[in-house]
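Possible regression after last week's pipeline update?

I re-ran a chain I had predicted before the update to compare outputs. Posting the input and the new output here so someone can diff against the archived version. Not blocking, just want to make sure nothing changed silently.
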Amino acid sequence: MQRPFNFSAGPATIAPEVLAQAADEMLDWPDANGRRCGMGVMEMSHRGKEFQSIYVHTEADLRELLAVPKNFKILFMQGGGLAENAIVPLNLSALAAPHGATRIADFVVSGSWSDKSQKEARKYCQVNIAASNADDGHTSLPDPATWHLSANASYVHLCTNETIHGVEYPALPDLKALGSDAALVIDFSSHVASRTVDWSRVGLAFGGAQKNLGPAGLTLVVVREDLLGHALPICPSAFNYETVANNQSMYNTPPTYSIYIAGLIFQWLKRQGGVAAMEARNQAKAQLLYDTIDSSSLYFNKVHPNCRSRMNVPFFLRDEARNDTFLEGARAANLLQLKGHKSVGGMRASIYNAMPLAGVQALVEYMREFERTQG
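New output (post-update):
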């Protein structure tokens, strides 16, 4: 029997075979040789040999999948992307500020999440809004050539995929070419592992796991080694990147079960052909859905075509009085969680890695039938 297709923005759908494996191993986890250990992952000591083997393989698989260079540390933390909005400035805002000098960070506001980020950072440093798309309702991206970057910023923060507004950077900016020596910080929560990353342009990347990497509770941080060791004195030890790196993400008890599920997902991604294969698949899914929206007289999308997200597709009915009817019919067709974010309205289909093409095809078929009969 086909499971319903879950279009939730996060926590999001997980590949059924991953869930099935986790269910099989829930009471008694087997090692690489198939030997059962007598306990489930949630019961393991994070310092025991069983979980240590899970951790080592999970980190190695992630480094391989994302092609993370050796001079970057992979940290498994907690707190989600919202906590990182504080943890990043606590660790990086003094990079370009001699003792006693003003700490400055540049932000490009491209939607709700980058706006939340800059507001949180103001507690720890001076914020410069280098560019913003607020005037057009977060439906385009400011050309990097027009950004007003600070001469002495410690870092430049981008949310490279805005989950709520459906805006995605098609490529990362080259800060060196823009005349900035600042570190590029990217929040890639909602499209991590959906496309390749040009690490030559990145200083730090962070993201909550609950969209493409697994269940809520795990936060991924990938940080260049030279950015470690600059935390403010007020930074809590558990959030100091250098401390976390020096303790292999075990300074405090990590989110063990979430790390384990992420590890299963990384193995699943490798079986699918890796990130490059997923990127091609994601492009095809997104193109199918956007073509359906653009060819319709009932649905529309507000985002400029050159920066539309391949993960989060917001769309609207021209007659909003039919929204509830659309959602009721979608639920009856086993298409779940399509209601748009409360701050934006309309609909939103999140089509992360684990959403198969069949799910998007089912949504498109329903949308066309709804327009034919209700439009």
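Follow-up from reviewer: compared with the archived run. The chain has two domains: 24-270, 275-374. Marking as no regression found.
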